[in-house]
Amino acid sequence: MNTASSTAIVIALGYLLGCIPFAVITSRMFGLADPRSYGSGNPGATNVLRSGNKVAAVLTLLGDALKGVAAVLLARWLDMGDGTALFAGVAAFVGHVFPVTLGFRGGKGVATAAGVMLAAVPAVGLTALGVWVLVAVLTRYSSLAALLAACSAPVSGLLYTHSATICAALAAMSGLLIWRHADNIRRLMNGTESRIGGKKTSTS
To answer: Is residue 197 part of a domain?
Structure first.
């Protein structure tokens, strides 16, 4: 089944999985306002948390992460190989960031990227998670933690796998995640970014 057409189909399915708007779905389930209508306007777990409903935020976080996991596992279940599995995961990440279901205006992709990395290259995912936790604890900046975790992914990917293809896929995903954090980067540079536990954050 490992042909160009079947690979394209798996990647397309990965993208469609990424387009599932868990932030919007979860908010409707709990009778909350559409997350695109308040806060950062981001359809992600962090913005759902602004509603005050922690359960909805956690379910959104898990749903967004599992989109990436599902795309990777689907490709592996179809015996497509590790490389295709990673690309399917990256497609799910792209689907989260640019979902056709939300007019191509999605979240920042932190949870989905984490799910992709943990499922496709566990060592890379665990390294990125470790970086996130360390930076978040030391600085209390969730956005900075996400940015540095993203930067670590292609480096650790090359170290762990010695595969230029895997490194390139991780670099593409990390680059898009960093780009989606442009506003956070500006606030970090200006000293106006909010810290974890504050009233304003926008990292997912």
So the answer is: no
Contact indicator for 203, 110 with CB cutoff of 8 Å? yes
What type of residue is 131? V
Residue 201: band (very low, low, confident or very high) from pLDDT cuts 50, 70, 90? very low
Over residues 113-143, the pLDDT tens digits come to 999 999 999 999 999 999 999 999 999 998 9
Is 203 contained in some domain?
no
Residue 202 covered by a domain: no
CA end-to-end distance (rounded Å), the chain? 35
Does residue 115 contact residue 68 with C-beta atoms inside 8 Å?
yes
Count: domains in the chain: 1
Q: Look up residue 115 and give its two tokens.
A: 């799910």
* Contacting residues for 100 by C-beta, under 8 A, at least 6 apart: 19
Residue with tokens 């932190």: 110
- Per-residue b or e along 58-87, where b marks 16 or more CB atoms closer than 10 Å to that residue's CB: ebbbbbbbbbbbbbbbbbbebebebbbbbb
For residues 184 and 47, give the distance between their C-alpha atoms in angstroms, rounded to a whole number. 14
Assess if residue 198 is contained within a domain.
no
Contacts of 73 (CB under 8 A, 6+ apart): 85, 119
Structural domain span for residue 15: 4-190
Residue length, the chain? Answer: 204
Instruction: Confirm if 185 and 148 have CB atoms less than 8 A apart.
Output: no
